[in-house]
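Task card 7
Instruction: Convert sequence to structure tokens.
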Amino acid sequence: MTVTKKITLKNERIEYTVRKHRQAKRLKLAISCDGNCVVTLPWFMGMGSAEQFVQQNAAWVLEKLKAMKKIGRNNIFSRHNQAEYIKLREFARDMVHRRLEKFSQIYGFKYNSVAIRNQKTRWGSCSSKGNLNFNYKVIFLPQRHADYIIVHELCHLKEFNHGKRFWNLVAQTFPDYEKIVAELKVL
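Output:
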């Protein structure tokens, strides 16, 4: 069950999504890569608990949203209509394919297929079948951050985990990957 709500935090009106989840054991709060505040709520808790949780964490929520705006990623916040989404998705597909071609030659990794989606909480993913998925909003990131996401998913073709060997692969192209990961967390 998913519900979208609005709340005023320190004179700022924000929208947040509440997801009731049967397997959730505790409340969880996240800012998704489309700029939406998402509360995961255990099935047994009432909707009022979600609003209270957002209010209790108002400073954190507003700090994250402000950081996203500060670095000029306003398009990440934007909700796009269907026509805009289709156009942006095609731009993203073109950029991702060009960059994948470059990095797959460097690493020598072969991928199966590439999908560009409107993912709510991820910049990218890699399936065990070698399929790579990317959020269309990757085109709004600085190129270095977009390239990191592409390399990250590409490296999962060789190491399907986040172990030391995986990070060593990523570090071949991005020795400062920890800094990039930290910057992406505020997006």
